Amino acid sequence: MLPYLSICALLIVTITLSPATAAPWSEKYATREYVYPPLWELAPENLLDFPVKGNKIVINAWNYQERLGMYKNLLKSSAKYFTAFGSQNIGNILWGLPSQHGWQFRTGRLADPSRATSCGYEDGDLLCISVRSWWSNVNYYLSVIPLLAAVEAGLFGQLPYEIEILPPEEQRADFCYSVADCRSQVPNLMDEWKAYFEYLLSTEHKAMRPATFSSFQLDDALGLMWKAHVTSNAYAVPKFQDNLKYLSVPEENFGVDWATGVDFIAATYFSTDLPTMNSFQAFLPQRMLVEGDVSPFISDFTPQQNRVLLSLKALSKANELTGGLLLKLWEKSMSTEAGREMGRKLIEGLVSGQKFDLVGIYNYLKGADLKASSFLRKSSSGIL
């Protein structure tokens, strides 16, 4: 009964806080003109395109274009596993990572938030990624670790050189810089990402023809990818809590709310292919939040962007008030394909503002404790 109740509770909290305003999908998505991260065409697409020094491939992960190149290599080398899900590799579920990285760059979230340097700004080094940026540091464990784990798994075959990641000028002890170093410092993270890439490689060995990959299960791949993603977040988010002090209070709160929201999204095995990411990211804030920004009243944000901020805030606060119980119940309810399908519909509706058929949902959630649901409905107004 509890798994169903958790879905019902979350529906009530988010629907109560989200106006039922229909929103069309992105025009670019409708015309199938896919949007790639900024400078995607210029990013290195082969590991040997990075500088080779002392028999090592040297990557500057504190340069936006080079960090983007790590993603480009991952996408290119895993493209053959996703041929059944769209041409031009658009069905690759790793698109969520570079898409988020591109959004962070485009909105100024990778620049030095303390303004002590010109890192990331037009009057300085625009491509510089600041080690003082909370967003960039969390993203480090969603870029460097997947790349090095993929190397360890054999996604790139037998490389002629080892890979070395350049350290930042500050906080050097907070990061790892090679396969061996990261294997030693964060073995759990390496294991989770390696498991994802090993799954892809195993399907190649089982399939008769590379173009078919009959043993490939998208649901299994999404499950492994999201497990690795939340494991990276669970390590990096608290590790870089001190970097939040450089942000405005609204931006700091948004970062924390976003991290919580990712945990809920991950449990649904939400697809992170390129078309989905194009549609989804249109509803994220297109600049840093500043003092005085209060959703849903931010004038230069769209109604959908305001709604997403408000919904994430409500979700994060509800989970905090329940001591994390809401997330645990949500994850339990997402343990079946039917539950995950319901969860994905909720996430999509929350973002787009579509109106839910509550009667149909309640019929589906038969056996739920409606008295408890009623309590959550009444208390949701106090969450904000």
Helix and strand layout, with pairings?
Blueprint: H1 2-17, H2 27-30, E1 52-53, E2 56-59, H3 64-77, H4 96-106, H5 134-140, H6 144-153, E3 162-165, H7 179-185, H8 187-206, H9 218-239, H10 249-267, H11 274-281, H12 303-321, H13 325-333, H14 337-352, H15 358-364, H16 370-379
Parallel strand pairs: 2-3
Antiparallel strand pairs: 1-2
Describe, in plain words, how this protein is organized in 3D.
It is a single chain. Strand 1 (52-53) and strand 2 (56-59) form a beta hairpin. The protein has 16 helices and three strands. The model is unreliable at 1-9, 11-32, 210-214 and 355-384 (pLDDT under 50). The radius of gyration is 21 Å and the shape is globular. With 384 residues, the chain is mainly α. Helix 1 (2-17) crosses helix 12 (303-321), helix 3 packs parallel to helix 6 and helix 10 (249-267) crosses helix 12 (303-321).
Distance between the termini: 28 Å
Structural class: mainly alpha
How would you sum up the global shape?
Answer: globular
Into which percentage range does the β-strand content fall?
Answer: under 5%
User: Uncertain regions: pLDDT < 50 for 5+ in a row?
Assistant: 1-9, 11-32, 210-214, 355-384
Major sheet attributes = 3 strands, mixed
Number of helices: 16
